[in-house]
TrEMBL record:
Alphabetical list of PROSITE patterns matching this protein: SOLCAR (PS50920)
Source species of the chain: Selaginella moellendorffii
Record's keyword terms, sorted: Membrane, Mitochondrion, Mitochondrion inner membrane, Repeat, Transmembrane, Transmembrane helix, Transport
GO CC annotations, alphabetized: mitochondrial inner membrane
Gene Ontology biological process terms from the UniProt entry: transmembrane transport
Transmembrane segments: none
This protein's name: Uncharacterized protein mBAC10-1
UniProt subcellular location: Mitochondrion inner membrane
Phylogenetic classification of the source organism: Eukaryota, Viridiplantae, Streptophyta, Embryophyta, Tracheophyta
Lipid bilayer topology: Multi-pass membrane protein
Amino acid sequence: MADQAGSKNAPAGNAAFCESPQVYDRDASAIASLVDNTKLDVKSPTDVFLSITKSLIAGGVAGGVSRTAVAPLERLKILLQVQNSQNARYKGMFQGLRTIWNTEGVKGFFIGNGVNCARIVPNSAVKFLSYEHAANAILWAYRRETGDSEAELNPVLRLGAGACAGIIAMSATYPMDMIRGRLTVQTKGSESSYNGMLHAARTIVRMEGWQALYKGWLPSVIGVVPYVGLNFAVYESLKDYIVKEEPFGPVPGSELAVLTKLGCGAVAGATGQTVAYPLDVIRRRMQMGGWYTTTINGQKVQVHYNGMLDAFSQTVKKEGFTALYKGLVPNSVKVVPSIALAFVTYEIMKDLMTLEYRITD
């Protein structure tokens, strides 16, 4: 009787639930769909290790080839960033490249490129893998918050995921970037010189302390947010827009042509580096602070900065606002071929290694 009374007094919703198994099945399917769309595929430790290793190799080779191809422009950009406008030795892209050729020969174009390539493997691996995990975590939280299992990342969320990835990757490889900057800037006849990456690291730690390896870290952290964040946000948002809106006509399936992806990458790279470029200039100058001398009014002066704001203040006061964009032209010129070569090389490596996981996607 009690059971019958309980059944009679049960809420209508519960009675409907008990009498309609379809309702339960539908709700269970919705929950399963939400979980399936927000979790990563579970793989064995061996599969995960092989996937990460292949990604490291493919991304490292792609980064090394692309960076080596534009090494002359990369070095000229840094030389333009740190020189003083009152005694400018490099007065533009073509004149600067000729000066390097005449004074240092072919080797001068590739000074500092070895350490630059050496940091590409860990930087690319950490950056892209961090972005993937950050994006998945943000997407999971976003879908859970909205209750929409079909929700996708919007540009703002992609910007956040890219910023997280950039900060992690930059912090992990910053000492190598700092050493690369000094190796790149030293020229024939420099008062201070290093005989290679390891010698530079030992000398810097001995003479300036280990904290010197992180000079300019703060503006780098601030700059990496718009730079890497915009790279990922603009690139993926452009791809989504082209696929969904079809502004240039029908797009077969959901795969874009390589040239279209290159165009998206070029726009993303140009946008990110233009917005963050002044912070890159300040970062380089802080890295060189106290290490190199410049000539002002005929006298050699050793340059020192007491932090990021002081570096900004001194640069603008002595050289004007345009000094914050020194080297922007060669840096912009190298963006398109660098991205193009990175994509093509990665695709070749992916095919050779039958790689399932694609960093660029």
